[in-house]
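Researcher: Predict the fold of MFS family permease.
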Amino acid sequence: MNPTFRRLIVTIFSNEFAGSIAAVAIPLLVLELTGSAAQAGLVAAVGGVGFVASQFFSGAITDRFSAFNVLRLSSLVQALAAGVLLALVVFRVDQAAILASVVLVAALASSFDSPSEHSIVKRVVPQADLGKAASIAQGRESLAGLLGGPATGVLLMAGAWLPMAVMAFFHSLATALAPRDPHSEGDGNLASRAEGCRTPVPEAGASLKAAPASAAESDAPPMPEVTPAPSLAREIREGFAVVWNDAGLRGTALIGAFANVTVVAVPLILLMSYQRAGVDAWAIGLFASCAGLGVLVGSTFAGWLTTRLTLGTLGIVALAAFTAGQGLLWAVHGNVFMAGAVMFLSTLALPAFNSAIGAYTTAVTPEHLMGRVVSASGVPGMILMPLGAAGSGILLEALGPSAAVASATAFSALALVLIVATTSLRTLPRLDELTELSPVAEPAAHAH
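Model: Structure tokens for MFS family permease follow.
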């Protein structure tokens, strides 16, 4: 892979590692400062809701500017937010509203990481390597998640301030290492690259042409005609329209959303079940790491699979293997070590499934639409993911662990049925056979 992509991987890993620390450390920090578990949960919820809500506009905003600059600014804001949290710990500020505000800012900034990453990948990675790039991203994300939890536990032994300091360091590292556009000497703005500077428009909807007032002026070049920039709301709608109008994008968004319910719910059901049954903490921790380890190992060969199989076949095989493994947990969950082994084996297939979805999205989406399409594609998953978290506890209380696992696995089974039954998804070709969608929207308006 080229140097720009390598810097991108390090940048996103730094942000994700800091984020995995935040997921554990911030609720504990709020609990320590306020003494209220309810306020700790509320602060965490504010960040989660803010992140989900920002998915609607983060991609459209990314498309308006250079994705390289957006990623750098996002990392910087997250670094500053972590620095503020560090100061709040040091000075023992216990107002939940202040803590929630800082967490919200960090969550909003982090929502720009994914659309900017996909836009940069589209720009610097050849289409033949998109599957490999997606699998590397899967491994990076899994590694960050695997390291984040144990690292947070070690850091907290020195006090609540140290996780905040480490978060600030890694977000700052991401800011410093964020890649620059290798194809542009300027800021990389798509409109600027295309036509140069934009001429201001005095009135919305106006189209201006030069009208010479004298013979001398008639020899001057005419004033450029100006088309006003589309509104942000329109660009957001365009992203959703692209996803909805393409059967592949629409289908992969829904399939990923359904599968994610199972990905989130089943481990939570079993973790709560083991804790309630009095299983040793070290055994619970070992089980919790098995899914992340499976994804990490699976990512090492997912890229190779994307070059050998059609995306439709890869999606079916990977999703079938994952669903079968999750279903098997219904029978073996009583033994935490057996359950961990099955969880590891079943999640080996997830990187191939996610790589197929990610590579398809990047390959068929025009560069100037990448940010908003990635955001729109992720909205169904972001909406359903809380269902997996909330539903895990409800299912466990109402049905017990066996039936709860079976019920949660039904969502990945539904995703499998959808991909098998939908011709446009089942017949998705190999990566090297994909072509971009016909443009349905233009880049931000420019003078011409």
